[in-house]
Design goal:
Rossmann fold, formyl-coa transferase, domain 3, alpha/beta, 2 domains, 18 helices, CoA-Trfase_fam_III, about 40% helix, about 400 residues
Length: about 400
């Protein structure tokens, strides 16, 4: 496990209450926790966050959980019970940040609207992640990351031309929303520091986080009426940039810089294309992209992935193997960059997990604690909030905490 260094943590002293489950809200909490924030995760008694049981399990818990919830403290608290809501308010009153990714109106139904929480804690930064945002005609519709990817425009492009749209393989809509949320939290904390200590609400919609990454999609439609369509592995309007078959797999080649293109063509024995006047800039290459792709594909097809990588790397042409999980786990660059960490779990085994991103030189992120079991920190957190052991025991007897 990557232990804390002697360097100060970037978010040391920031206290976060995380309410919500699965991916978007908790990924934001994970990111803040890795840079020193104290993250108190509130989970429902019984099963807790459903992510504990998603995908592949070991010792009864998802190994995904070990990544998503490291550096967090788990409080098992029934937010449907009035006593549970009172405890949540006590925790929020002492927090800097509240993260929630419930359907809009849920907090209000518990008597914890932003206005009510700001009356309790004027400096509170409230991050609200939802499918469609807190306003607008769709606000009450259920929304998951996949729906955000569809509405945000991404799914229309993730396909081979004329074939069914496919997902990118991970919950990218949720993760993009989480990262936008983390950026919003940082800006709101900075504003609070330099402008008198007032908190604010950050409203992140899943589809808007995806849409924000869609590059020239809307300007092209506005200016030209052009609807960008699926292009498979190619990068439309930029050439050459595509995936090419090898004798034992696939490589991605990005030869779309003017000088890079010339080096690429020389490396594959196509000096005629390197010297062609009309291929000296991107517009000319786009006009002949099918011919260029065919030339590259014909050259790669008879060679192994490694042979292609060696030749093009020597020519200073960006080229990449399509990595599997095994490739990542065995790659020396990942190791050298501390992007593969061995993390001990509270279930008694160790697992390799992703490292911390981004890398800060003075205040690096760390993995300080492993992911908690459900309710591991309930008693300690409630005691810190001022509850007596008798009060804690009574709440446990009532099933409000676990």
């Amino acid at each position: 496990m990557q232990q804390a260094t002697n360097s100060p943590a970037a978010l040391a002293g920031v206290r976060v209450v995380e309410m919500g489950q699965l991916i978007a809200g908790p990924f934001c909490g994970k990111t803040l926790g890795e840079f020193g924030a104290e993250v108190i995760k509130i989970e429902a008694p019984g099963a807790g966050d459903p992510l504990r049981n998603w995908r592949l399990m070991r010792e009864g818990t998802s190994v995904w959980w070990q990544v998503q919830s490291r550096n967090k403290r788990s409080v098992a608290l029934d937010l449907r019970a009035p006593e549970g809501q009172d405890i949540a308010r006590r925790l929020i009153a002492e927090a800097d940040v509240l993260i929630e990714n419930f359907r809009p109106g849920t907090l209000e139904g518990w008597g914890m609207s932003p206005a009510e929480l700001h009356a309790l804690n004027p400096g509170l930064v409230i991050l609200r992640i939802s499918g469609y945002g807190q306003t607008g005609p769709y606000r009450d519709l259920p929304g998951f990351g996949v729906i955000g990817e569809a509405m945000g425009g991404l799914r229309h492009l993730t396909a081979e031309p004329g074939r069914v749209p496919v997902r990118v393989g991970v919950s990218i809509g949720d993760t993009l929303a989480a990262l936008h949320g983390a950026i919003g939290v940082m800006m709101a904390l900075y504003h609070r520091k330099v402008n008198g200590g007032a908190g604010q609400v950050i409203d992140v919609a899943l589809h808007e986080a995806v849409f924000n990454c869609m590059e020239s999609l809307i300007p092209e439609y506005s200016a030209f009426g052009a609807v960008r369509e699926a292009a498979g592995s190619a990068l439309p309007g930029i050439a050459p940039s595509n995936a090419y078959p090898c004798a034992d797999g696939w490589v991605l080649v990005a030869g779309n810089g003017d000088s890079i293109f010339k080096r690429l063509m020389a490396a594959i024995g196509r000096q005629d294309l390197a010297d062609a006047p009309d291929l000296g800039d991107n517009a000319g290459r786009v006009a002949r992209v099918a011919e260029i792709d065919a030339a590259i594909g014909a050259w790669t097809a008879g060679r192994t992935v490694q042979a292609v990588m060696d030749t093009l790397s020597a020519a200073r042409v960006p080229v990449g193997k399509v990595y599997t999980a095994q490739d990542i786990a065995e790659d020396p660059h990942y190791q050298a960059r501390e992007m593969l960490l061995t993390q001990a779990t509270r279930d008694g085994y160790s697992v390799t997990v992703p490292g911390v991103v981004p890398k800060l030189s003075a205040t690096p992120g760390t993995v300080r604690t492993s992911a908690p079991r459900l309710g591991d920190d309930t008693d300690a957190v409630l005691a810190e909030a001022g509850l007596t052991q008798e009060q804690i025991a009574l709440l446990r007897a009532k099933g409000v905490i676990q």
